[in-house]
Amino acid sequence: MIIAIDGPAASGKGTIGKRLAAHYGLRHLDTGLLYRAVGRTMLDAGHKLDDRQAAIAAAQSLDLSRFDEAVLKGAEAGEAASFVSAIPEVRAALVAYQRGFAAEAPGAVLDGRDIGTVICPDADVKIFVTAAPDVRAKRRAKEYAAAGKDGDEATVLADIRKRDERDSKRSASPLKQADDAVLLDTTGLGVEAAVAAAIAIVERIRKR
Q1: Among 14, 85, 147, 190, which residue carries the largest CB count within 10 Å?
Q2: Directed axis angle between helix 75-84 and helix 153-169, to 10°?
Q3: Residue 48 pLDDT greater than 80, yes or no
């Protein structure tokens, strides 16, 4: 079984993806980490984020095991990821990895921004997770605070709005809900309620 979860930053898709994978005994891939790792590679090497050739080279030689997930989860890597992910050649370099991961038995849960539309268009279950921007900003600011990082809520909200616009308007695999994806709005939901709602969606689709 392949479960595709898409949605904007801080919508809850990552948490839901991990919990669904654990619930169904599937492997989980946060595909955003791939792009964050490319962005982090660019920053560490001193490249400008609009350096197309450097970004393509970073994607083609990417070794995700070299990175600490906590570093990749930082705001700087997230912002960089939004830039490099708009480069078609970068996306092409990472598509094969994602599809290969999904194809291995017994299946997988992948979360990102183009899983249901591009990476796994034939996924058994597709869920588009969203939430109001201000709620997402509060969640992300809380995550930063818990990690001991600066995260002014107003600044985080501004960054989220900019990233939403950039992700949805890019020419390469823009963020959008697949036609056959089920919308899950987590604005008023806690973690447990959101996970329960996602499980209910999966079960409903499995019974068809």
Answers
A1: 85
A2: 20
A3: yes
